[in-house]
Amino acid sequence: MADPKIRTTDEEQPVAHPLVARLREGVSNAVLASHAFRADVTVIVPRDELLAVCRFLRDDAELRFDMLVDVTAVDYLGRMPRFEVVYHLYSVPLNQRIRIKVALEESDPRLPSLVSIWAGANWLERETWDLYGIVFVGHPNPQRIYLYEEFQGHPLRKDYPKAKRQPLIGPGSANAADAGIGPVRRDVG
Prior knowledge:
The protein is α/β, with parallel strands linked by helices.
């Protein structure tokens, strides 16, 4: 049964695709909804089933999704649930794609890490955490990948204040000596 909190656009149509049918056979109760747009299949799954769904998609002989192409998030500020984390998978041997979406509440933006399934999830999850604040539980190196550690907030969230001033680091900043970055010019006022 489709989750009424998950919205789709008029162009997205519910789909009875063999890939979705196979996923439903392999991981019962894992598909909350599915649709297709321009022949790309999307399934929406609950957070608790994400690892099982991804393992099945990778390991099933009929599906063989051996490549995690991308991980990102979408911030639907004002909607409940606020976030969707989106995974793009590709089967190299079968030349097929699938998109996995997981909805997350603002109060609990956590998902299990997929690094144990696809090593390439490492940097992609770090990017999603850095820019959106989605926490990937069990990630082997949960630190920022684009922004410096002192950066406050997550700049792709829709409520991030665009005029926010960040602590300065780097050569010439007041924090440079503390951060071990040099050389520092003390005569600059």
